[in-house]
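Support reply, case 0932

Customer input (verbatim):
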Amino acid sequence: MDGDLYYLWEDLDLCEADHEALAETLREIPYLGRECDLVLLDIVPENLETLLDAHRGTHTVLRPSPVGGVALRGLTPGLISWLDDRHESIFAEHAGQPVPVDHRIRQVRYAAATPLPDSMYLLVLPFSRAVSIDEARRRAATVQAGEGGFVFPVTQAGNPYLDGRAVGLGAITDRGIEVSEDFDQTWLGEDTGAASLQGGYWQRGAREWMSVVPFLGHPDRWVAQRQIEAAVPNATVLELDTRPVRPSQARMASDDTHRAWHAVLRTEKEIPGPLVLQRDTGTGVFLPDYGKDDRR
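Our regenerated output:
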């Protein structure tokens, strides 16, 4: 590759001596991997937010994720102790005790992350195939996004020619995600480049919004409308029905105490996405509305 690559080591506090020692070590490294992959390594003093602002739109941010689609080689804990043992076995006064060869290399998985306000990120985990919203919600229940985070179905919606089925999961998190034992790795696929799988697609701002995962609300329409208005202050519900009101809206199962409501609403001013009204259930997910009569 040709360009700048940054490794962001958060919460790292180096004293002046350690900083100089690390900088000197980096200057002595001529390449990474193959000898033809020449590099110039240095310590960049800018903090995380400054780097993100400077390279937004030109760099892809990768965050550690146990189910991420990008696998890189990393080092395991205990590497320094193992290197010390190897050094002693060769150069110590009583050298000769062999130390088993153990390169301490492991695969570290990362997922593309879209930076959001308040130090949060949007991770998108693509499915190997499109599934119903109900199946995506069952899968979302096996993923935890940490304190203040949440998970929701990512659907192929926001365009009148799409069918609204779920093609992945979106996770809003500040540190990463964890998966339970019930998470099935075979669910995961590759990022095909589809718009719905890109973080920026869900980050778009608008004043008029359409639901792409129904709002799980009270069976009574009047009460459900009040629930939506309470979730989005100063918003006006323009359309609300148990049947899809836009071609790309897919149905979702409900129960005796809830209904799955399809909605279109207008906010008082333009706000950025992702717009998710029910974070605990991953429902009430909205995208910018393309309009009832838009068939372009």
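We compared this against your earlier run and they match. Two observations from our side: The longest helix spans residues 79-91. The helical segments are 16-27, 48-55, 79-91, 133-140, 199-203, 221-231. Please reopen the case if you see a mismatch on your end.
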